[in-house]
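1st attempt posting a full record on here, be nice pls
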Amino acid sequence: MKKGTKLIAIAIAALAIFFTTNVKAQTTDKSAWRLGIGIEGGLPTGDIHDASGFDLGGTARLQYGVDKNVAVMLTSGFYNFFGKTVNQTIITGTTTTTISGKTSSFGVIPVKAGAKIFFNSPIYVSGEAGAGFETATGGSTRLLLSPGLGWANHSWDVGARYENFSGGGVNYGLVNLRIAYGFTL
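the predicted structure (as tokens):
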């Protein structure tokens, strides 16, 4: 699938989520603690795109209602970037050789804090910043920035976002969809 086609598909899916539901929305309850457990999947971008075609993970998010329309949150979990098969063609004189191999999968533990703002309940925008800890031997810690857009009611939270991991001359990211079930603590 071409990059433009993927972005269009993600945008259409996000719009479908936001405009096809009639569930009574809940803004955040002031001074209320919530915990959400979610599953995430998405498409790697940037420097990692050639080595991984898909990521899958799980996260836990602790949320505190600062105001009726604003919540602060702390999120952590695990993302697995699945390796993909790559081909390399070597031409030596008149001989062409193709070598095929699978890249290694690797994981990242995100730890981030941010805010969720309900501007048209149940729709919200979010922003998070933190660190991504690569779990591979010799892995690095990368700056993690993550803007997002989502829909939430009293129990469910569906959000789409872009996560960018950068540092040490490396820059990669992912476009993720998170579906989570949440409850009041």
